[in-house]
Write a structure and sequence with these properties.
This protein is 22% helix and 34% strand. It has 285 residues and is an alpha+beta fold. The protein has 2 domains: 60 residues, no CATH class; 211 residues, Fumarylacetoacetate hydrolase, domain 2, CATH 3.90.850. A hairpin with a 5-residue loop joins strand 10 and strand 11. The protein is globular.
Length: 285
């Protein structure tokens, strides 16, 4: 089942039918029995017309309320290699090799809700970075009791020139206005997502594809439950939390995003998240 958020409501997609869902977003998605609750709504809620759906689809928001967004780093071998390459000059390359092999994962705060963009909305690149890339990731939605209830697509925007200069600059490389994309929906299955599901990314420039690749999510070294266990060791999340699980799709080192680019990320079973790339218009270069 796919749960969508708009400015004023939520609606559910199930077996090619759509239903309006009542109630506040935070309370709705933080339920212990979310799948069962949504399944019940398909028998108790009004079915939406095609006209209603067309109106609602134009108003889609990121599927987030008051949740924080966290991220896991260096969870794929390709990510380890990329981080080591960008950090050679700073002498920090070994840090990423060590964290890839360590029992404790790299976890970091990524964004509060106001810094998250939804489907069709702009994502920003930093003006003070010469090397900016998207990072396509599967994001987990975990409720307040540390139970994985759903999944969505994430774009963990990254300023590689800043992180490569010094690993202590990670917050600046990762955390800024509109540095995170989530959507287009919250996918709520009865069982865990298929580990063979593929994540795919295409980057368009002047309407032409300048990057395309895909990989199955089972290439990740760490388990979803293991990441969640570490995240919840000393943190409480009363509204639940979104956890990005890392990337394996890394453009070549000579590639950097430009304003006007369009990034499309898809994950089997969830859908497609598309965002346009821009500079923050409120900040002068």
């Amino acid at each position: 089942m796919k749960l969508y958020k708009t400015k004023g409501s939520a609606f559910l997609e199930h077996v090619d039918k759509y239903y309006r869902i009542q109630g506040g977003w935070d309370e709705l998605i933080n339920r212990e029995n979310l799948f069962s609750y949504l399944q019940l709504q398909t028998t108790q809620s009004d079915e939406l017309s095609s006209g209603d759906i067309q109106i609602l689809e134009k108003d889609l928001q990121a599927p987030i309320g008051n949740q924080e967004v966290w991220a896991a780093g260096v969870t794929y071998l390709r990510s380890r290699e990329a981080r080591m390459e960008e950090s050679k000059k700073s002498g920090a390359a070994d840090f990423y090799d060590k964290v890839y092999e360590a029992e404790r994962p790299e976890l970091f705060f990524k964004a509060n809700p106001q810094r998250v963009s939804g489907p069709g909305q702009d994502l920003y690149i930093r003006k003070d970075s010469s090397w900016n890339v998207p990072e396509p990731e599967l994001a987990l939605f975990v409720n307040a009791s540390a139970k994985i209830l759903g999944y969505t697509i994430a774009n963990d925007m990254s300023s590689r020139s800043i992180e490569g200069e010094n690993p202590l600059y990670l917050p600046q490389a990762k955390c800024y206005e509109k540095s995170a994309g989530l959507g287009p929906c919250l996918y709520v299955p009865e069982h865990a997502i298929d580990p063979a599901a593929r994540i795919e990314m295409t980057i368009f420039r002047d309407r032409k594809s300048v990057y395309h690749d895909s990989v199955s999510i089972n290439r990740m070294k760490r388990s979803h439950t293991g990441l969640v266990e570490y995240l919840f060791r000393e943190c409480d999340f009363p509204f639940g939390v979104f956890l990005m699980t890392g990337t394996c799709l890394v453009p070549a080192n000579d590639f950097t995003l430009q304003p006007g680019d369009r990034v499309a990320i898809s994950i089997e079973g969830i859908g497609v998240l598309t965002n346009n790339i821009a500079f923050n218009p409120a900040k002068r270069g």
